């Protein structure tokens, strides 16, 4: 499999600047990065800035890749030539809905040769939460992050930096603070750990446990010390059929770390019908949508989105479903 890395951040937060540091670090770590740039008008301009740093840069101009330019992004990813030591890095549009993007990339059957997304969110210390009506979007882009980087922290006053740190702490963001060099090292380790796995088992009928925290200590493919890898999502296969009542209770009692849950389920009282379900945040009511008896995804499964997911708790809860 190939690592799939998302670089997310509000307009002007410093995503391209971060990539200018990340790409040389990836090359030094022996990783061949394929970069996809998404922006409204100037994707080609940003792609041109990175052309000297990597042999593969593709530009997607127009709508966000989580919605209007979704098919274009999927087309680029589906054509990608996988190989040892390669990784795909997607710099998203500044107004991207990161939850929606992570969900789409995690559930798309044609992307089984990619890892679940790793999300690096760039937070502009100078402008954080000064976006007026876009403040909520900026917060949402940080909530699903597995990794965080504070840009422009060297040009703001100490008092401002303290206020930003306090704001981030109050939001309880789970992303781990890393710089470009550390992230490059983690991507290198992820390349090594995924080398022996051709694809994720989505839709195969087997348990797909590519969890938010991968412990690869038992699979030392390259003879180096493996570490836990952080993903923005976790997917688990559900029982073939479950009780509608028990599944509703399961969704209502999900841990607070689960920002969004979505997937496909079959109920014992409607065995000829598949249902797509979704739940956003702790207090929202679950929603169910019937999709017939032959949907695109035919293996009942649940996708959980959120950094630092309690994998053992989720795994036990799924195992207890009847």
CATH architecture of the largest domain: 3-Layer(aba) Sandwich
- Give the strand line-up of the largest sheet: 3-2-4-1-5-6-7
The count of β-strands is 14
How does the helix and strand content classify structurally? alpha/beta
Compute the separation of the termini in Å.
33 Å
* Count of discrete alpha- or pi-helical segments spanning 4 or more residues: 9
Q: What is the CA-atom radius of gyration, in angstroms?
A: 20 Å
Q: How many separate structural domains?
A: 2
Largest sheet: 7 strands, parallel
What does this structure look like?
By secondary structure, the chain is of the alpha/beta class. The chain folds into two domains: 4-194, 3-Layer(aba) Sandwich (Rossmann fold); 213-319, CobW-like, C-terminal domain (Hypothetical Protein Yjia, Chain: A,domain 2, 2-Layer Sandwich). Helix content is 30%, strand content 22%. The protein has nine helices and 14 strands. It has helices spanning 15-28, 43-50, 70-78, 98-107, 135-143, 158-171, 180-194, 244-252, 311-319, and strands at residues 4-8, 32-39, 56-61, 86-91, 118-124, 147-151, 176-177, 213-214, 229-230, 233-237, 260-266, 274-280, 287-290, 301-305. Strands 3-2-4-1-5-6-7 form a seven-stranded parallel beta sheet, with helices on both faces. Strand 12 and strand 13 form a beta hairpin. Helix 1 (15-28) packs across helix 7 (180-194). The longest helix has 15 residues, at 180-194.
């Amino acid at each position: 499999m190939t690592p799939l890395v998302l670089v997310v951040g509000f307009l002007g937060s410093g995503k391209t600047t971060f990539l200018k540091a990340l790409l040389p670090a990836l090359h030094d770590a022996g990783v061949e990065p394929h970069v996809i740039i998404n922006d409204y008008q100037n994707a080609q301009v940003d792609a041109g800035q990175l052309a000297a740093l990597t042999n593969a840069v593709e530009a997607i101009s127009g709508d966000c890749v989580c919605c209007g330019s979704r098919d274009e992004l999927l087309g680029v990813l589906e054509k990608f030539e996988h190989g040892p030591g390669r990784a795909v890095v997607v710099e998203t549009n500044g107004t991207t809905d990161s939850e929606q993007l992570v969900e789409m990339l995690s559930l798309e059957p044609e992307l089984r040769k990619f890892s679940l997304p790793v999300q690096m969110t760039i937070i502009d210390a100078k402008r954080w939460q000064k976006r007026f009506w876009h403040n909520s979007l900026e917060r949402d882009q940080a909530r699903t992050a597995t990794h965080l980087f504070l840009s422009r922290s060297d040009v703001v006053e100490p008092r401002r930096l303290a206020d930003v740190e306090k704001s981030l702490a109050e939001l309880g963001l789970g992303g781990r603070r890393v710089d470009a060099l550390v992230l490059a090292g983690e991507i290198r380790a992820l390349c090594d750990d995924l080398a022996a796995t051709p694809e994720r088992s989505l839709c195969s009928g087997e348990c797909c446990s590519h969890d938010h925290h991968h412990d690869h200590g038992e699979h030392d493919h390259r003879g180096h010390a493996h570490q836990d890898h952080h993903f923005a999502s976790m997917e688990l296969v559900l029982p073939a059929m479950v009780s509608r009542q028990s599944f509703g209770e399961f969704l209502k009692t999900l841990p607070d770390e689960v920002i969004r849950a979505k997937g496909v389920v079959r109920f014992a009282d409607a065995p000829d019908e598949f249902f797509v379900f979704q739940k956003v945040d702790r207090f929202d009511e679950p929603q169910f949508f019937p999709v017939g008896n032959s949907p695109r995804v035919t293996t009942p499964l649940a996708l959980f989105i959120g950094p630092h997911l309690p994998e053992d708790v989720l795994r036990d809860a799924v195992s207890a479903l009847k």
